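hey can u check if this looks right to u? its 146 residues, i copy pasted from the old doc so theres a chance i mangled smth
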Amino acid sequence: MTDQILSPENVRIVPGGASRDDAIRAAGAVLVDAGAVDDAYVDSMLEREGTVSTYMGNWLAIPHGTNDAKGFIKRSALSLLRYDDPIDWGGEPARFVVGIAGLGDEHLDILSRLAMVFSDEDEVEKLLAAQTSDEMVALLAEVNAS
């Protein structure tokens, strides 16, 4: 088990596109498979998206569970799915779907580090051009910094 917040095993480059809800389910499934959350956390990710959009700009959406779902988190982790085709995220185009699970308040620090990377359009272009999950993790090394 890795202690990285984002490991290459949790990164997917997805051909084509998806619906918003299917993308949320896919990001959640990676977190479940990684042993970071229980299945019920994925339902809470969909529940949160129903009340407030997690679209952040620059192709990025960060679906995460509700505050009530904190008990379903086993360890802090991220999943990263990059879609070849933009997803309609409430009228905004998303190509990066980052599922986030943070123990305690760790998600706030993780979100802030992600926001720093994705606020830089040159970095986003590099992420769009990356060919492998290892490349994407290397570009997001700041997210794993402790």
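Residues 20-33 form the longest helix (14 residues).
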